Amino acid sequence: MLKATTYGDVTRFDLARTLAGKGRYWTTAYLVDGLLIDSGCAFTAPELAKALVGHPLSGIVNTHSHEDHIGANGPLQRQRAGLPVRAHPLALPVLADPRGRQPLHPYRRLLWGWPEPSQAEPVADGEAIETGRYRFEVVYTPGHSPDHICLYEPDQGWLFTGDLFVGGRDRALREEYDIWAIIASLKRIAALPAQTLFPGSARVRMDPAAALAAKIDHLETLGEHVLALHRQGRSVDEIVHTLLGRPMPIELITLGHFSRRWLVHSYLAAASSGMVSP
Questions:
Q1: Fewer CB within 10 Å: C terminus or N terminus of the chain?
Q2: Domains in the chain, start-ordered, CATH in brackets?
């Protein structure tokens, strides 16, 4: 399933596999001046490729290497010879060999599927990706994944955040995420004078400063409460019950890979290593 929305010179593609007649667990790609920022999942690659027919395409930038952001890389490279793909250096092995380097849990195979391999070039923090009319600055923002980047167009005030910022009040986390790195990365992009925030899912924000400040405050406050209960000798399960409410459907769907417990564990992992005050 594909939905396209235009924001001036930016076209947003919301993409999801259709199951039981509905799109499930949407992800987002953006097209601006011939540059495709992320490419959805493998199941939606044919729809995205069809939607791009007639549009000049100068390259793809992946905000990170998760399967729901790289799915059309390979098909588009096959259709458009020489199409460059760029990503953080840590992402390149996954892009070249998704099956070998990024095993997928059953729910990930069901919702997003295995991406085809693609050949990519590295971009590093502080580099710029230029199109005919725009210049996108690369901002390294690990936490959601070690290879995550955001793109910032200073003249337009556009901020493309991938999955670093998707809105909402987090009550769960995937096993391998780093919550304190996410907070640090959010603070880094919050310092940019952005005018429009284009997330990897959820709605576009026209008030990035307020949205980012609220997200950072929520995550830091939650972390303080987690650490306070930990200092009192409370167990992970007790902290989860006290702070994070009832079980969530996503915990069942992912067989616990995305859960409230992993969010608490991520807060505590940094405390135990001395990265934050326990």
A1: C
A2: 2-208 (3.60.15.10)
